[in-house]
Amino acid sequence: MNYLKQVSLSKIVHTVFDKITSFFLFPISPFPLGFFRIGIGLIALFLLIQLWPYLLQLYGNFGFIQWAILETNTYTWFPSIGKLYLLTEPIGFSPETCVYLVFLVYGISLLGFILGIITRVTAFLVWICHLTIINSGFMSIYGLDTMLQICFFYAIWMPVGKSLTIFHLFGKETTQPSFVSGLSIRTLQLHLCIIYLNTSIAKMRGAQWWDGEAIWRALMQPQFSTFSYDWLSVWPFVPKFIGWSVLLIECGYLVFIWPQKTRKFWLSSILLLHAGIALLMGLPLFSLTMIVMNVTAFGWDKNTRFFIKYKKVRF
Question: Exposed, middle or buried by CB within 10 Å (0-12, 13-18, 19+), for 62?
Fold first, then answer.
């Protein structure tokens, strides 16, 4: 009897192990990761173009926040432009030169990253430059920069350069499914589930999202208001309905994004949610970043077909 129990337990353990292995290490085409690399890279490049005329005001030694103040924060061991200046001052570098040098390397690395040239090296350069930038000025930093930093870190070890590169365009390299691509996709999927679960729990703990006050406050702030929303005071059920919808979509993401029967609807809902944030609150780059992450993680089936339209993608 004990022998039968041991055999049964052994079978259960092996079955669970096989399921876990199949879940994380199933070979998947790196095509979605190529899409991820290009999408994130283009967003970062567009943000860089926007910031370029104001670099000295935002990140210079005598900009809005001086380096002497920035270097007093808790994470003083993180790289920054101020520390770079201290290292290069003996060879004649000025503070302005250090600012432009960091952003120049960042921009060149982004171009190489987007094109897929020595992707792991360019991904690391982009990551370290972006880390230096976000620790050198707080006036232009918000949630977008945090998500980009996470994406750049993932790009260092994920095989984002195995598809949709300039070398694939000219037929010099081929794309093959791999377990590393599968592991990368699963990591991104689980990370998104944790993000939406965490945000939904935080929102549900307060009354502002249940009574619509959070939506009202967000839309009425001048820095986020792209249209006039005064009419919401006459229709208070509208922000309440939007708040409930956001809670439902984010809270249900962890459960309904996985089954094939509900994935298309939930993916479409989360994409529309971020499109609404871009349109109504004027945060297009942040919304595009989340859209790229969601499409990369859940927008493709095992045959790299896009779920929403079911169009075959050639690569």
Answer: exposed
CA max distance for the chain: 82
Domain limits of the chain?
29-161, 181-315
In terms of Cβ atoms closer than 10 Å to its own Cβ (0-12, 13-18, 19+), residue 59 is buried
- Distance of alpha carbon 92 from alpha carbon 106, whole angstroms: 22
Of 76 and 219, the structure prediction assigns the larger pLDDT to 219
Here the tokens at position 6 are: 């041991």
Measured N-to-C along each axis, helices 260-281 and 213-220 cross at an angle, to the nearest 10 degrees, of: 40
Statement: the pTM of the whole predicted model exceeds 0.85: yes
* Per-residue tokens: 34: 């190529």
Q: How far apart are the C-alpha atoms of 279 and 251, rounded to whole Å? A: 22
Enter the DSSP assignment of 311. P
Can you tell me the mean pLDDT for 60-84? 80
Give the Cα separation of 75 and 237 in Å (integer).
44
